[in-house]
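Shift notes (night). Ran MBL fold metallo-hydrolase while the centrifuge was going.
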Amino acid sequence: MKWNQLPLGPLQTNCYILSNDEQECIIFDPGEESAKLIQYIQTRKLKPLAVLLTHAHFDHIGALDQVREFFKIPAYIHEKEAKWLLDPALNGSQLFPGEPIRLKPADHILAAETELQIGSFSFKLFETPGHSPGSISYYLEEKGMVFSGDVLFKGSIGRTDLPGGNHDQLMKSIHSKLLSLPEDTIVLSGHGPVTTIADEMESNPFLNGF
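Came back to this:
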């Protein structure tokens, strides 16, 4: 199983493509630049099965409709942010320059910490609110990696000054859900470079003293 990081849009939001030996793939957070993302997938002859959203802020969902319509695949999101796809005030797009984002509803609503099976891909879902109410981290236990969205970054943590943000809740999510994972777990964040749980436990200044 392989993963590739594809920063998209002016905020360089990380879209991740997780693929298996059969060339099937899962798309995480198609934030913008749909043509670039579609070409990337086609060039590598990948066969997308689904789009998984870590949360519904505008910079993580901008290319969602184009991508899922092109490949005829479903999108998954947490129930607490299902309405955000349709509402620029909730997804934050009306607060920033550019066109307000109004998307179609998600195809599947996630409502609990459970195991999600899509083809040969198996994820454990962690509810990790704080950056946003419906933030989800997708843990691929067999490969020791977690797609954490904007919860935890290399040397930093997610912002909590947007609607629905809560700093104490974010810190609780990080410590109880992410830092409890094996220390060699790879953290694939929504922005910036990849890191590990061990590195963040050792050197992330925002986690000291919590």
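The chain has six helices and 14 strands. The chain has a mean pLDDT of 96.
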